[in-house]
Design a protein that fits this description.
35% of the residues lie in helices and 13% in strands. It is of the alpha+beta class and 434 residues long. A hairpin with a 5-residue loop joins strand 10 and strand 11. The chain has two domains: 179 residues, Phosphorylase Kinase, domain 1; 211 residues, Transferase(Phosphotransferase) domain 1 (Transferase(Phosphotransferase), domain 1), CATH 1.10.510.10. The strands form five sheets. Strands 3-7-8-6-5-4 form a six-stranded mixed β-sheet. The protein binds adenosine-5'-triphosphate (ATP) and magnesium ion. The site of adenosine-5'-triphosphate (ATP) has 24 residues, from strand 4 and strand 6. The site of adenosine-5'-triphosphate has 24 residues, from strand 4 and strand 6. GO terms for molecular function: ATP binding; protein serine/threonine kinase activity.
C-alpha cells in the first residue's frame, strides 16, 4: 500500500542473520512522494476526521459494571467506516459475510507470535508475515499484514482494502480471507502467494536466481491487465486502483499474477464526470504526470502505471533507478526518446533475457507500453484493448529453439525479421512529449 507520503523507513536491527538481511533489504528506501509520514492521508473527496483517533482506541466501551470491554469485531470495522464517512451501503457490504473476522490472538498464534522467520516483507502499511490457519479439514497458508500504528498508512487504507476486496472476486486479484479490527490492532489476512512479488523476480536478483523468461513476463503482463480490466470495467461501481506497481503484483503457483493492495483504490467518476479530484497519492515513477500535476484521477492514470510495469518487464529496469545517470533515472524518461527509432528497440530489452525473446513480440510489447505511457491521457488505450493485445502476446509462445531465434542470437536476424516488425516509431509519433 505504498503511496506518496510513505516516508523512508530505516531498519533498527543490527544482527545480520538471513532473516534479518531480508528484513533490512525490504525495509528499503521507498521512493514515494507527496509529503511526510505525518501528513494526513485522506483525499479531498472523502474527508476523514477520525484517521488518527484509533491510536487512542475509540473502540473501548464501559459496561454496566464499569469494566472496559472491547466491542464486537464487526462493530469496530463499521465504526472505522463511519469515522471515515464512507457510504453506508459500502459499510453494510463490508460487514457482510465475505471476509472472516479474526481475533488478534488467533493471528498471533498463526504466525508464532509474529516470529522473525515468518517475516515476508514490509511496506507502507506495516510488516507482512506468513501464517498458518488450522481448520478442522485443512491447513491454510496465509499472509498477514499488520498495520504499523506509527506508520504512514492508517485506518483509511485498512477500510478501503477490506471494502474493495470484499466486493471483488477475480482470479487476478489477491483474495482477502479476513481481517482483525480488535482494539487498535488492524490486520489483514490474505491468501498466501508462494512466489512473492514481481519486484522480487525482476530487480536486484540474488546470484543464482533465474531471471523470468519472455513467456512468463508476457503471462504476468496479461494477467495483471485482466485484473485491472476487472476493476475498471466489471466492478460495480468501477474502481481506479491508483497503486499499480511491481511490488503490488503478487505471484502464485506457476507465476499466476494477482494485484494486491487496494488501500488507495477510488471509486471511478460517475455520470458525466471524467475524473475524480483527489489528493495526489501513488508511487514515484508510476504516477501519471497529468494526475501528479492536477490531482485529477482517471482510469487512464492506472493505464500509465500499467505501461511503466510493462516497460519494467520488457527492459528489466526499475521505474526509478537512482544508480543510473540523472537523465536515465526515470524509466519513462529514458524510454521515450528510444521509442522514436526502431534501431534502438533491441537495446531496450532486458540483457538478462540473453537474446531469448521474439523480435516481433518485443516490438508489439514495446508498442503497447509506449501507448500506455503517453503524456496525454486521452491518447492512452482503454484497459480492454490492452488486455486484448497482451492476451494475444501471451498466447504466442516463444520457442528459444526455433530456427529464427537461434539465427538472431547469432547476430544474423536483421533483414528477415526487421521487415515483419510493426512500425512502432509511427505509432508513437503522436506522443508529443517524446
Ligand atoms: N499475500 C501475500 N503472499 C505472500 N507474500 C506477500 C503477500 N502480501 C505481501 N507479501 C510480501 O510482503 C511484501 C510487502 O508487501 P506490502 O504490500 O506491505 O509492501 P510493498 O508492496 O512492498 O510496498 P507498498 O507499501 O509500497 O505497497 C511484498 O513485497 C511481498 O513480498
Ligand atoms: Mg504492496
Amino acid at each position: 500500500m505504498g503511496c506518496f507520503g510513505c516516508g523512508k523507513r530505516s531498519s533498527k536491527r543490527s544482527e545480520t542473520t538471513n532473516v534479518d538481511k531480508k528484513y533490512n533489504d525490504t525495509v528499503k528506501n521507498r521512493k514515494t512522494i507527496g509529503g511526510t509520514t505525518s501528513d494526513k492521508r485522506d483525499d479531498q473527496t472523502q474527508p476523514c476526521s477520525a484517521v488518527d483517533s484509533t491510536k487512542v482506541s475509540p473502540y473501548r466501551d464501559v459496561n454496566n459494571e464499569g469494566v472496559v470491554v472491547v466491542k464486537e469485531k464487526e462493530d469496530q470495522l463499521a465504526l472505522d467506516v463511519k469515522g471515515l464517512n464512507l457510504n453506508d451501503q459500502a459499510a453494510a457490504t463490508t460487514t457482510g459475510k465475505k471476509a472472516q473476522t479474526f481475533t488478534f490472538k488467533e493471528l498471533a498464534s498463526a504466525t508464532g507470535n509474529f516470529r522473525s522467520d515468518c517475516f515476508l516483507g514490509e511496506g507502507g502499511f506495516g510488516k507482512v508475515f506468513k501464517g498458518t490457519l488450522e481448520k478442522p479439514d485443512q491447513v491454510l497458508s496465509v499472509a498477514i499484514k499488520q498495520l504499523d500504528r506509527n506508520g504512514a498508512q492508517g485506518i483509511r487504507e485498512f477500510v478501503v482494502e477490506v471494502l474493495t476486496l470484499s466486493l471483488a472476486d477475480h482470479p487476478n486479484l489477491v483474495k482477502l480471507i479476513g481481517f482483525c479490527a480488535e482494539g487498535d490492532q488492524r490486520l489483514l489476512v490474505y491468501e498466501y502467494m508462494p512466489l512473492g512479488s514481481l519486484e522480487d523476480h525482476l530487480h536486484d536478483l540474488p546470484s543464482g536466481k533465474k531471471p523470468l523468461d519472455w513467456n512468463t513476463r508476457m503471462k504476468i503482463a496479461a494477467g495483471a491487465a485482466r485484473g485491472l480490466e476487472y476493476l475498471h470495467d466489471r466492478m460495480k461501481p468501477p474502481v481506479i486502483y491508483r497503486d499499480l506497481k511491481c511490488s503490488n503484483i503478487l505471484l502464485g503457483e506457476d507465476y499466476q499474477p494477482k494485484l494486491s493492495d487496494f488501500g488507495l483504490a477510488k471509486v471511478g467518476p460517475s455520470g458525466d464526470k471524467t475524473h475524480v479530484s483527489t489528493r495526489v497519492m501513488g508511487t514515484y515513477g508510476y504516477c501519471a504526470p497529468d494526475y501528479a500535476m492536477t490531482g485529477q484521477l482517471t482510469f487512464k492514470s492506472d493505464i500509465y502505471s500499467f505501461g511503466v510495469v510493462l516497460l519494467e518487464l520488457i527492459t528489466g529496469r526499475k521505474a526509478i533507478d537512482n544508480t543510473k545517470a540523472r537523465k536515465d533515472q526515470n524509466l519513462v524518461g529514458w524510454a521515450r526518446p528510444l521509442f522514436k527509432d526502431r534501431r534502438n528497440f533491441s537495446k531496450m530489452v532486458d540483457p538478462l533475457l540473453q537474446g531469448q525473446y521474439p523480435v516481433r513480440g518485443l516490438y508489439q510489447a514495446l508498442a503497447i507500453s509506449a501507448m500506455c505511457v503517453q503524456e496525454q491521457p486521452s491518447m492512452r488505450p482503454v484497459v480492454s484493448d490492452v488486455v486484448l493485445a497482451l492476451n494475444f502476446l501471451a498466447s504466442s509462445k516463444y520457442d528459444p529453439n526455433s530456427p529464427s531465434s537461434s539465427r538472431r542470437r547469432n547476430g544474423s536476424f536483421r533483414r528477415d525479421d526487421e521487415e515483419k516488425r510493426p512500425d512502432l516509431a509511427k505509432e508513437t509519433e503522436s506522443d508529443g512529449s517524446s
